Amino acid sequence: MQADMSSTITQVETLQSYLEQGIEAVMVKDDAILRKQATEKGMVILSQKTLEIYQQRQKVKGADVIIFARLKSDTYIRYALEENCFLERLDCNIYGSSRWLNKYLEGTLEITTQLVAANKLRIDIRNLADIPLILKPIPQTSICLNELEPIELQGSARKVIFASLSDMTLSSYDLNVEVVNLFSTETNMPYVYNIPVKGMLFSKSESGVLNCAIIPQPKTIRSNTHSKFVINEQTCIQVATNKAKTEIHFLTDRLKQAASLTPEIKQFPVPKNNIIVFKELPKNTLGKEGYRLQVTEDSIEIEANEKNGFFMLSKRYYNFFRLKFTHQQLLLKEVGKCLQFS
Q1: Could you report the per-residue pLDDT of 257-309, keeping only the tens digit for each?
Q2: DSSP secondary-structure letter at 32?
Q3: Sign of the CA dihedral 21, 27, 30, 32?
Q4: SS3 content of the chain, % helix, strand, coil (to 5)
Q5: Helices and strands of the chain, counted as H and E runs
Q6: Coil, strand or helix: which one is 42?
């Protein structure tokens, strides 16, 4: 919460003005009616003892204070000040330790991503706070912004930027920016912040487990990043089961939309290279909605024992398959991965 520790409120009108500025903790003159008004507005009335503790730690005169208190009360604000859990704001600049600058940015920057083309990522950055932010991108290798101009985010504003990825199978990317109007009191320099950008195909849980962008999660994943499967005009689809005749259109529609490719669909056996095969497994092998996908350099094998399994795989992978295509060729980024579901 924001607090004003540089002045004492003497009028009711000022309380409302402070609330509109996002300031919720204030010094109030010793007036019962004024204090009651402040309490009824949900504001915290700061004590003289709390003010004295802040003055002992103050670094920027005349600044508003952003306090990281566990609860909204004078006591907890005092505890936070004693532990230096605060930032100071003067005009549009914010000053403080790296730890709390990082904490502030984690709470105020909302990041969403969308893969919009081969190796091209759309990044939506929203400033949830009222205080403007100026982000100056720092060049890096794993993620390359199309433009390196400073990103100016007014309060509650959103900006959309685009980036190219060196490897789109990573679970996360480091987008480093210099926050021009945030200053570290440890270095007296603008704070460098690492914006966490999630990968689109894979993510890591808190325990470090690699998860792919499918719900529900695969039972097992085996990865071989050294191989690839290319879909081109010679690729054909073999449907070795009647249970997949309808569901294959999720895949064929995607190929046609992405690169105007219309693979030939056959029911009888075909050469084992450059082929996508839909196979039926023995009953109860994977369960009613279970399915298995295996990708090698020569083929993609899609297996299930029920129609629902082919449907669930085709439906989920319609958006999960992100294809890198040049002219009439597509490179499946899920190459060399075997995923088994049950």
Answers
A1: 766 788 888 877 767 788 888 888 888 788 888 888 888 888 888 888 888 88
A2: H
A3: positive
A4: 25, 40, 40
A5: 7, 26
A6: coil
